[in-house]
Each structure stands twice: as C-alpha cells, then as structure tokens.
Amino acid sequence: MKEQLNITMLCAVLALSGACLGGCGMQGGFVGEPSDTTASQIPPMAEDAEGDNDSKAEESQTAAPFNLDGVIEQTVLLDDDALTIVAEKLEYRNDMAYLTLSITNNTEGELDVMTSTLGYSANYVNGCMMTAGHLSVQLPAGETTEEEIGYSLWELQLYGMKGIGALGLGVRAVNDEFEEVFKGIIEVATSLYGEDSIDSGTFAGFLDSPAFAQRLGYDVEAASSIDHSLGAAGLDALSAFLLTNQEGEKAVMVELTNNTDDALIVHVSDVSIDGALAYEGPWTVDTVAPGKRFVIDDLLLSSMVEDKADRFDLSKVGNVSMTISITDANRNTILDSAELTVSF
C-alpha cells in the first residue's frame, strides 16, 4: 500500500529501474533528469529554442521553454496562534523552481511542520496535484526559520504545465505531544496567475511528445479507451498512458480530475492486468483538492508481477483494471467501490 510504503517505494521500489515517477529521476527515465544517452543532445528546457521555427520536424524534437516569468511578492500565507508562514520569493535555477518560505512557531513548545507526508499530501501546482513541494522542519518555540522548497521544471512540464501560476501546500503541524495544531492548504499566486497559456489542463500531449520521449528515453502508448463509473462521485478520467523504460519495464499513468467543490480522497486497490489479478489489496491513497486534476503515476506493472512473472506477459498489455473507492476529507464513504479499466 502506497500510504505505508511511500517514502521507500517512491525513490526505490517505485523506480522501475532506480528512481521514482514523482521526480526523483529515473534510470532509463520516466520523469526527472534525462537519460545519459540523450542528455548531451537536448538543450536545457529553460533556454530559448534555436533554429528554424518554421520547421515542424525540428519543433517536434525540441522541448518548449518553460515560462520563467512567474514570480511572487512577499505574501503572508498563514498567521494564526500556532504558525506564521510567509512566502518570500520564487526563483529559478538549474531547471528547478525554488519557493522560499519563512516559518514562525507562535507557540510555547516545539512544532513539527510538514507537507507531502503519508498522513496528509495535498500539494499542487496550478491545477494539478503533486507530491513535489516536500517540507519537513522541527521548529523550537518562538523561533523563525527560512526554508526552500524545490520543484523540477521537467516534472511540471511533463504534467502539462508551461509556467507556474499558483503553488498550493498542504501543511500539517503537530506539537511535541503529537497534537495537531494546524492542517490545511495554503496558496501563493505568481505574476502568471490566471493566464491560460501556462497550464494545458492535462498531461496528454506532453507525456507522449517526441521531445519528451527523446529527452527522457521512454516509449509511450496512449490508452484507446478508459471505462469507469466515477462520474456520480465527481471524478472524471482525462487520459491514460502505458510507459516502457529502456529496461523494458512497464508502468501505467492515469489522469483523473475532481469536479466537485470538496476535497476527495481516492483509494486504488486490486490491480488486474488482462483480467488476471496482479496485486490484491490497497495500492495508493491520494488527496485531491477541489477542482484539481491528479495523476495515478505509480501503477508499476513490472513490480507488481515480479514474483509471479510466469503468469503474466507484459510484452503486450491489453488492459489494466483497478478498483476505485472515494471518501471525503473525514474518511466518510462517497463511493464504496467502482472499477476503472484502461485499454491499450
């Protein structure tokens, strides 16, 4: 189950050959840094594109530059009896965006302040939920610290973003008696906020673009259909892809969107490949903010069947099914069980 194994799996087991889909970098590459075979052939994504802009063949092999104009003014994001959090600046270095926060403990005891944890993961960039934006700090009573949070621009662009308009952080803080003193989402808007050009609303067209395929070194197959009955609970499926890395290992990514006005917790379990059960039990749990999309990006087929490879032929995957259940933020059941099937 992802909630139990997230930290170790995301940068180890979740790496189909050495790193995570969520941006730890992958050998043979799904997300993050480019593979060694192509790194020297493709210019950095934030540089100006060169050559003949009229040549569509050349355009198809060049990743569009990421818009680096999104900056912030000093902004108070939270100020209550427990915490004061101020967004100080947003900078871009080495194909990364760095958000600097100052955090003040307003209590008389030590606080643990964190984001993107097993118990509460509600970060987002623009309209997409992300595990990026991790923060963990122990703060003594009355003290202020300055922390820097990093975002991979390659990962953001892979998920359909061309610039940063808003950064959301699901913050949780507990005191030295493990009592929760704050839990909620804070957001800072940039100078690009509201511009349609910075977010495509889906990762389709980015994930399977020739530039990314060349840069990251993977093969991508788009789903021919996605069958589900999640609409009554406020979820819709936008796209899905089957990815194969340079080692021949396979993963599936499914993009869903929360069309409701409330936060939803989406549980994925019981994954089948071509009608045969590959993994039984809970696999992932994701919090989805209202109106945001999210990607189930860790359906690692090769890992699921590693100890039963004789029963599965992943050389040609026809369909992948999973059970979806949905609860609200207080874990009240909204949808008990529904099947989602992706066909290729």
Number of strands: 19
Structural class: mainly beta
**On the 0-100 scale, what is the average pLDDT?**
83
Q: How much beta, percentage-wise? A: 35-45%
Describe the biggest sheet? 6 strands, antiparallel
Round the Cα radius of gyration to an integer and report it: 20 Å
Tally the structural domains: 2
The CATH topology annotation of the largest domain reads as Immunoglobulin-like
Instruction: Return residue spans where pLDDT drops below 50 for at least 5 consecutive residues.
Output: 1-61
CATH top level assignment of the largest domain: Mainly Beta
Residues in helix, %? 10-25%
Number of helices: 6
**N- to C-terminal distance:** 25 Å
User: What would CATH call the architecture of the largest domain?
Assistant: Sandwich
Principal-axes shape call:
globular
In words, what does this structure look like?
This protein has 344 residues and is mostly beta strands. The chain folds into two domains: 124 residues, Immunoglobulin-like, CATH 2.60.40; 126 residues, Immunoglobulins (Immunoglobulin-like, Sandwich), CATH 2.60.40.10. 11% of the residues lie in helices and 42% in strands. It is built from six helices and 19 strands. Strands 4, 5, 6, 7, 9 and 10 form a six-stranded antiparallel β-sheet that branches. Strands 12-19-18-15-16 form a five-stranded antiparallel β-sheet, with no helix packed on it. Strand 5 and strand 6 form a beta hairpin. It is globular, with a radius of gyration of 20 Å. The two termini are 25 Å apart. 40% of the residues are buried. The N terminus is likely disordered.
